[in-house]
Amino acid sequence: MEALMTAIVLWISANFGLPPPHDLPRVEFASAAKIVALRYEGQGDAAQVSASTIDEATADTLAIYRDDTRTIYLRADWTGKTPEELSILVHEIVHHMQTVDGIKFECPQEREELAYKVQERWLGLFGHSLQSDFGLDPFSIFIKSKCF
Fold it and tell me: Which residues are within 8 A (CB) of 82 and not within 5 positions of it... i.e. 6 or more apart?
């Protein structure tokens, strides 16, 4: 995993100008439920998050990067054997590089803009796209990456 992440970091740095970090992120594998819990942690009373929101988020959340621990959490069934799965790691590595570089954002969603751009370019190397692999059209990406 370390060699793979190093190659991804160097590719991102060469293509998008983010300086490569001295330390790679930690990677942990977790259930979808744990990843969703980590996503909503610290966002108020967990009891206020509805069951439908949790179900929706569980289907939608494939991985998460935690700035505080500099850890990427991938779903337990992640294998990294397809361009789609690798692109999930690429996306989260962008967040690690943004954190290490000290880039500040107006809101958490704003940091998604570059991560999706990098992920789209990565997928394009294999003839794939965010639209074909994840059902993410440009408008959806816009909504997920802007402060409202």
Answer: none
Look up residue 57 and give its two tokens: 């988020």
Q: Which amino acid is at 53?
A: T
pTM, 2 dp: 0.88
Residues 84-107, mean pLDDT to the nearest whole number:
97
Measured CA to CA, the distance from residue 94 to residue 116 in angstroms comes to 9
Residue identified by tokens 């300086």 is 19
Indicate the pLDDT class of residue 40, thresholds 50, 70 and 90: confident
pLDDT of residue 51: 46
Give 26-59 as a 3 state SS string. Answer: EEEEECHHHHHHHHHCCCCCHHHCCHHHHHHHHH
Strands 26-30 vs 63-66: parallel, antiparallel or unpaired:
unpaired
